[in-house]
Amino acid sequence: MITIQDFLSGYGHQVQLWLFIGMFIISWNIENIAGILFNYKKWKHAFINAPFILTSIPGQLLLGLAFVKIIEWTAQHQFGFLYYLPFSKSSLVLFLVSFIFLDLGEYVYHIIMHKVKRLWMFHIVHHSDQALDVSTTLREHPGENIIRLSFTLLWVFISGTAFWILMLRQIIQAFTTLFAHMNYRLPDKADRIIGLLFITPNLHQVHHHYKQPYTDCNYGDVLSIWDRLFGTFKELPADKLVFGVDTHMGKEDTANFIALAKLPFGKYRKSGDHNKQHKSYIMNEGCATKL
């Protein structure tokens, strides 16, 4: 009889892909019915973000092979702190500890992408989206895709995470990432309860606000507990939110895929330098999307 571990080890990538497609379609239609933003061209916006799926494939294939080799090596040599846990034979304990550690790793990675200038220039491609919806999850520069997966590979190596655990976490992560980026808001009461543990659309929308200090908050991937523990948790009323990044609000920066692909190799812009330049543009042209 096949176990869940065997199934995920053999078919985890396929399950992740088809669940992501299914959840994307469901989320897209929820946005059409109960979305909070309607003052943008949704299909045009999606077609700007969609090409990043193709540009990320080479990095994912390359790093995918590295994951297989690293996980085989750590299993063979029983390398990683997970092998030293007192309950290391329990699949449930291993999954929970691995999940929490990898989620903390994503939090650390996210902060690094914001704080290191050149890495921020890669991450800014994602943040520069001025209409947050499920297609924003696709908007990741191939350079950042490689950086992100490399960090995950490091956490897997340190912990000795099993392949099936990584696959199950990736499936959960795909769901929560789509959920967090949805053009949708939970009712305030539901958000307060769910947001105690998990990143919600309401919380992640604050992270996508165009100005600091809100850009540098709510870094959590699946869990919101790290932001609460380390003082990076913030809230902002929906009517104050403007999506984008204050240094890259002009159409010349974000008008198409080519312009976005070039962003990481341009000159670093300090937050605030372009506020005056783009203030009238934001207010008069409606470039940024305000709830």
Task: Describe the protein's architecture and organization.
The chain is built from 14 helices and no strands. The protein has 291 residues and is mainly α. It has one domain.
Written as H for each helix and E for each strand, in order along the chain, the element string is HHHHHHHHHHHHHH
Choose one word for the global shape.
globular
Per DSSP E runs of 2 or more residues, the count of β-strands stands at: 0
Number of domains: 1
Low-confidence regions: 276-288
Biggest beta-sheet profile: none
Question: What's this, in brief?
Answer:
The chain is mostly helical and 291 residues long. Helix content is 61%, strand content 0%. The protein has one domain.
